[in-house]
């Protein structure tokens, strides 16, 4: 199916917007290696989030934590792989810019799948 932009939609699951306060934490090996961003949308196959950085996140596999502090939700250790990472807009600061990162979930355990499903039911809003 074609999107409004004329691109072919490759996603297999419906995406949903996430309520304000949904946060993605991507952890890479090494010290001081966690990137935090606001979740834009989520599905059972992956999610996308906004973050601010001077460079794109690496494309190799990383670990993801999904958090919603206000509701005391914390899902840690989700295996992922990077699908996309691009600058959203140029900024006058020159060195830091807003970016959008897309992740696909790798094999999730039954418990992770169940928790992810509950997160979508309880903290996601209309279709993205």
Task: Please tell me about this protein's structure.
The radius of gyration is 15 Å and the shape is globular. Helices cover 11% and strands 48% of the residues. It is mainly beta and 128 residues long. The longest helix is centred in the C-terminal third of the chain and has 14 residues, at 110-123. It has one domain (16-127): Thrombin, subunit H (Beta Barrel). The protein has one helix at 110-123, and strands at 16-18, 22-27, 34-42, 46-53, 62-68, 73-87, 97-105, 124-127.
> Going across the major beta sheet, what is the strand order?
2-3-4-7-6-5
> Which consecutive residue ranges, at least 5 long each, have pLDDT under 50?
none
Which structural class is indicated by helix and strand composition? mainly beta
Write down the Rg. Answer: 15 Å
Give me the CATH superfamily: predicted glycosyltransferase like domains
What is the name of the CATH class?
Answer: Mainly Beta
| Total number of beta strands | 8
- The geometry reads as globular
Helical amount: 10-25%
CATH architectural type? Beta Barrel
**End-to-end distance:** 16 Å
**Helical element count?**
1
Tally of individual domains: 1
């Amino acid at each position: 199916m074609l999107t409004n932009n004329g691109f072919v939609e490759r996603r297999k699951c419906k995406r949903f917007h996430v309520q304000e306060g949904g946060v993605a934490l991507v952890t890479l090996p090494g010290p001081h290696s966690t990137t935090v961003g606001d979740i834009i949308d989520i599905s059972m196959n992956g999610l996308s989030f906004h973050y601010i950085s001077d460079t794109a996140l690496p494309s190799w596999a990383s670990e993801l934590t999904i958090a919603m502090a206000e509701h005391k939700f914390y899902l840690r250790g989700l295996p992922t792989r990077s699908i996309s990472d691009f600058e959203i807009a140029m900024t006058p600061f020159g060195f830091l810019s807003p970016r959008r990162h897309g992740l696909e979930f790798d094999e999730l355990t039954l418990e992770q799948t169940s928790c992810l499903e509950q997160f979508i039911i309880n903290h996601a809003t209309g279709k993205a």
